[in-house]
Design goal:
This protein is an all-alpha fold. The protein has one domain (about 5-190): Ferritin (Up-down Bundle), CATH 1.20.1260. Helices cover about 85% and strands about 0% of the residues. The chain contains seven helices and no strands. The protein has helices spanning about 5-35, 40-70, 75-90, 95-125, 125-150, 155-175, 180-190. Helix 4 (about 95-125) runs antiparallel to helix 5. The longest helix is centred in the middle third of the chain and has 30 residues, at about 95-125. The radius of gyration is 17 Å and the shape is elongated. About 40% of the residues are buried. Pfam families: COQ7. This is Ubiquinone biosynthesis family protein. GO terms for molecular function: 3-demethoxyubiquinol 3-hydroxylase activity; metal ion binding. InterPro entries: Ferritin-like, Ferritin-like_SF, Ubq_synth_Coq7. Pathway: Cofactor biosynthesis; ubiquinone biosynthesis.
Length: about 190
């Protein structure tokens, strides 16, 4: 009979489940944006392809990390696919502003989650902490690139970022059956304790 999992092991599995699902959603967002990209945006197409490549690598890295920790993917990956595709399709209708506002909002939300995870993982799974830190560097580069190109804060960009950040948090919470909310509180408690 297998030993029961410790609270830390359960938390690590949740981190992997949420991160893998998030990368799955990001792949859908960038895939949809590429498919619906306005004509004449060659520089944007090159950046989206590179970013999509990063997200595919991140998703694979988290999937590989799951197997050694006996974690399973989120049961609601289809929610991430559909939600990501919808978000990518809608934001691409606003062209560059929509695409960069989407990237900035999603990556800023992701960055906050990764910061909490890293603080916990440094004490409980240094190998996974290193992986998350490496991935975070690329996610921050996506965020910086998008924010630099958004330029002055337009009303459209600000509105999109607010709505997309909220939608990202809701999608994370719904698809993980509230795990992301509980995860955030448990991470904060583990870091403080």
């Amino acid at each position: 009979m297998p030993r029961p999992l410790s609270q830390d092991q359960k938390l690590i599995r949740r981190i992997l489940r949420v991160n893998h699902a998030g990368e799955h959603g990001a792949v859908s967002i960038y895939s949809a944006q590429l498919k619906r990209l306005p004509s004449g945006a060659n520089d944007l197409e090159a950046w989206l392809k590179e970013t999509l490549s990063h997200e595919n690598e991140h998703r694979l890295a988290f999937r590989e990390a799951m197997s050694s920790r006996f974690a399973k993917p989120c049961r609601a990956l289809s929610v991430w696919s559909v939600g990501g595709w919808f978000l990518g399709s809608i934001t691409s209708t606003w062209g560059r502003t929509g695409i960069f506002a989407c990237t900035a909002a999603v990556e800023r939300t992701v960055h906050a989650h990764l910061e909490e995870q890293i603080a916990f993982l440094r004490h409980h799974d240094t190998e996974l902490a290193a992986l998350v830190e490496r991935i975070q560097i690329e996610e921050i580069s996506h965020l910086s690139y998008a924010e630099e190109r958004l330029g002055p804060k337009s009303g459209l960009a600000a509105s999109l970022r607010t709505v997309i950040s909220f939608a990202t948090e809701v999608l994370i919470a719904l698809s993980t059956r509230g795990d992301s909310i509980r995860l955030r509180y448990r991470l904060q408690a583990a870091i403080e304790g």
